[in-house]
Amino acid sequence: MSGAAVGRWLFRAGVGAVFAFLLAPIAVVVATSFAETGSLTFPPEGLSLRWYGEFLGSTRWRRAALNSLVAAGGTTVLATVAGTMAALGVSDLGGGREAAVLGLAVLPLLVPGVVLGSSLLVFLGEFDLQQTYTAVVAAHSLWATPLAFSVVRAALSRFDPRLREAALDLGSLQEFIMTLFVSGPDTRTVPVLAWNSLRGSLDPVVSVVSTLLVAAVVVAVVVGAAVAGLERFATDT
After folding, report:
1. What is the chain's mean pLDDT, rounded?
2. How confident is the model at residue 182 (pLDDT cuts 50, 70, 90)?
3. What DSSP assignment string belongs to 103-159?
4. From CA 81, how far away is CA 87, in angstroms rounded?
5. pLDDT for 201-226, tens place per residue?
6. How many whole angstroms separate alpha carbon 153 and alpha carbon 87?
7. Based on C-alpha coordinates, what's the Rg of the chain?
8. Of 73, 220, 81, 68, whose CA–CA distance to 145 is shortest?
9. For residue 35, what are the β-bridge partners?
10. Domain assignments of the chain as residue spans, ordered by start
């Protein structure tokens, strides 16, 4: 076997080991969600859909799932708009001003969630907004806006500024920890309720929730990749 072949084999083995390391915890969570007993053990003792029924029949979990959807929708709109506006503004700057604004834009990602959560709790308390949907969306958006800003700014680096000028001429117009601080009994999201459940008992319902979240992400990624592939195919043809 040549040296190049050995190198390729070692590279593939290394990549496989990394993927196995990353996917092993997810596999354990999925397996424990089908456990027959009421405790989180691996390998599970027997297989059952009991805990999926427990999740679907629980008012607490259904309410938390609805709260998560509301928070996700509000955060998506607010973070996307704020991040896009910030990226457009930064694209018009230059030199030291651009560097200073970039540092401020990503600052929420560098500050510990405990600090942001406690500070946000005190700030929202001045307006009597604690334990409201507004507080939950604000906490999520504070963390998500820098991510939206980074994505949009990267896209703008390949964007022709003349297109924006033409549009104007035509009239075109650490999340969980922070949420733990500002959410209340009626505004708890799925991660917060999962945290509270783990503190009280270790039943497999939490594994069910995690499995469903992983499945939702996988479906979203597959659909997004399929749509992007169709658009690229249509462009090429």
Report:
1. 74
2. low
3. HHHTHHHHS-HHHHHHHHHHHHHTTT-TTSHHHHHHHHHHHHHHHHHHHHHHHHTT-
4. 10
5. 666 777 777 788 778 877 877 787 77
6. 5
7. 23
8. 81
9. 47
10. 33-228
Q: What are 215's two structure tokens?
A: 């499945």
Q: Cβ(117)–Cβ(177) under 8 Å?
A: yes
Other beta carbons less than 10 A from residue 53's beta carbon: 12
Q: Which long-range contacts (CB under 8 A, 24 or more apart) does 106-112 make?
A: 106/146, 106/149, 106/150, 107/146, 108/142, 108/143, 108/145, 108/146, 109/143, 109/146, 109/147, 109/174, 112/174, 112/177
**Cβ–Cβ contacts within 10 Å for residue 61, how many?**
20
Do 124 and 135 contact (CB within 8 A), yes or no?
yes
What integer pLDDT is reported at residue 173 of this predicted model? 46
Residue that the structure tokens 């989180």 belong to: 40
Nearest CA-CA partner of 192 in 31, 34, 59, 67? 67
pLDDT over 70 at 231, yes or no: no
Alpha-carbon distances of 121 from 97, 131, 137, rounded to whole Å = 31, 9, 13
Phi and psi torsions of 170, nearest 5°:
-90, 0
Query: Is cis: bond before 43, omega within 30 of 0?
Result: yes
Q: In the chain, what is the greatest distance between 2 CA atoms, to the nearest angstrom?
A: 71
Buried b (16+ CB within 10 A) or exposed e, 198-222: eeeeebbbbbbbbbbeeeeeeeeee
Q: Look up residue 71 and give its amino acid.
A: A
CATH architecture for the domain at 33-228 = Orthogonal Bundle (1.10)
